[in-house]
């Protein structure tokens, strides 16, 4: 029980998100801390209420409506596991009653695998959702039902600025078109590439500031998007973006990615995951002088060819960077505003030595304090301790790493000299070598004893 009570609030929030309403009510009785956390306005604001309309009964609805009338539900997800069946009259009335009660507090509505009849029920209450800004229409099976006309008409009564939609049929494109004048944040889940091309080429999105293109892993696209398929309509939209995220699993060709980067001159946040990019693309990224956040989780080779030269990133306004060790991209010395670094390995035996050595060579880095350094799925042996002697880090996070136990002694020294202030470890494994000092720190318990002022959060730690 003690191990549960010492968990930070963020971890408890994540655990509570898996509990149904009745279990949440019982959890309030466990201890005073849980009671205060589960009844705080902050928790109710971030909690997502998951509902299956076919399971809503009068008794359950009355309890939920009471909480809804107090403004406790800001996010609701409707999940329909039987899309082909017709809802009962009781479930229809219960769903309408609950959504109407949430009308003044609901700002995030998520519709997952909903049938046409469920969407029609939602459209009856949409006009009363005066605070609704986030709308998700998604499908876990890659299919969307026919969206009723009343649903499109109800969209004119709300001010949705964030849309997340699965491009599985023509109705999804029409939904984007109806909401286009107000949309600021758009996520397109590409099931059919033709629908994505239509959305970006034909729909005018005057207020759009953030675009995310996702290709679900379980979707099949025989032919990806090639050069020449996007036109001036797409380039006009990209030119006004501040955030661009591409998670495509190679469905957008590397040449097309270069074309997109060429038109994204005002981007401040750029993410490219699970795809490829050319050296020219890296050069285009290095020209984005206003870029503040960069995440590149790419395959080892750009376009399947070995790198002739390792591209260097030198951006004057870059504050946060997230790189994969195997890609071979280098950090330049001119990164004056860098505050957060995430280095991720493709497996637990990857080494982060090269990227860490480039971090400590950044001009003036020894006189600054990094807000966060996160190392994910890498091996840290005794030869990678140079950065611990140079960097000053507010929070050092290690996730899924294999760590030489001798580094714990170096961490102790860094804490003594006020270079590390908080340590977070998740699912890390410590191994011993001949470099471990006699009588040195071997475990997290020993580290706590040596450094009582260091804030340590750890879970899933093991020792070889």
From TrEMBL:
Record-level GO BP terms: SCF-dependent proteasomal ubiquitin-dependent protein catabolic process
In terms of InterPro entries, this protein maps to: F-box-like_dom_sf, F-box_dom, LRR_dom_sf
Q: Name the source's superkingdom.
A: Eukaryota
Coiled-coil stretches are none
Q: What are the residue boundaries of the F-box domain, all occurrences included?
A: 1-47
Q: Which Pfam families match?
A: F-box-like
Q: What is this protein called?
A: F-box domain-containing protein
Q: Name one GO cellular component term.
A: SCF ubiquitin ligase complex
């Amino acid at each position: 029980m003690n191990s549960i009570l010492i968990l930070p609030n963020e971890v408890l929030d994540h655990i509570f998100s898996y509990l149904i309403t009745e279990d949440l009510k019982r959890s309030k009785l466990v201890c005073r801390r849980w009671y205060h956390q589960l009844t705080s306005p902050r928790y109710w604001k971030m909690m997502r209420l998951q509902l299956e309309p076919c399971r809503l009964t009068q008794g359950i609805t009355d309890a939920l409506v009471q909480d809804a009338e107090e403004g406790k539900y800001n996010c609701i997800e409707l999940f329909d596991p039987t899309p082909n069946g017709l809802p009962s009259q009781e479930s229809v009335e219960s769903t309408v009653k609950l959504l109407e009660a949430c009308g003044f507090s609901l700002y995030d509505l998520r519709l997952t695998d909903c049938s046409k009849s469920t969407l029609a029920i939602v459209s009856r209450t949409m006009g009363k959702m005066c605070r609704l800004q986030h709308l998700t229409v998604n499908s876990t099976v890659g299919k969307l039902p026919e969206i009723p006309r009343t649903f499109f008409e109800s969209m004119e009564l709300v001010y949705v600025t964030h849309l997340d939609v699965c491009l599985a049929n023509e109705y999804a494109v029409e939904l984007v078109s109806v909401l286009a004048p107000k949309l600021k944040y758009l996520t397109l889940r590409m099931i059919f590439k033709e629908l994505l091309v239509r959305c970006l080429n034909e729909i005018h999105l005057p207020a759009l500031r953030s675009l995310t293109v996702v290709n679900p892993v379980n979707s099949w696209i025989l032919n990806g998007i090639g050069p020449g398929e996007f036109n001036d309509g797409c380039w006009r939209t990209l030119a006004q973006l501040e955030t661009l995220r591409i998670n495509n699993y190679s469905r957008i060709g590397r040449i097309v990615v270069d074309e997109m980067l060429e038109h994204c001159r005002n981007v401040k946040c750029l993410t490219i995951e699970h795809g490829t990019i050319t050296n020219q693309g890296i050069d285009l990224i290095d020209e984005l002088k206003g870029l503040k956040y960069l995440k590149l989780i790419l395959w080892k080779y750009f376009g399947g060819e070995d790198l002739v030269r390792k591209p260097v990133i030198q951006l004057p306004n870059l504050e946060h960077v997230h790189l994969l060790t195997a890609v071979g991209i280098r950090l330049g010395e001119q990164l004056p505003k860098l505050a957060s670094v995430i280095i991720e390995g493709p497996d637990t035996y990857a080494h982060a030595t090269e990227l860490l050595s480039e971090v400590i060579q950044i001009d003036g880095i020894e006189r600054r304090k990094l807000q966060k350094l996160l190392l994910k799925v890498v091996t840290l042996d005794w030869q990678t301790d140079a950065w611990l002697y140079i960097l000053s880090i507010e929070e050092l996070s290690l996730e899924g790493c294999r760590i030489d136990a001798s580094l714990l002694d170096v961490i102790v020294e860094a804490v003594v000299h006020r270079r590390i202030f908080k340590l977070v470890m998740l699912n890390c494994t410590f191994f011993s070598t001949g470099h471990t000092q006699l009588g040195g720190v071997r475990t997290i318990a020993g580290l706590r004893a040596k450094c009582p002022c260091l804030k340590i959060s750890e879970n899933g730690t093991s020792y070889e």
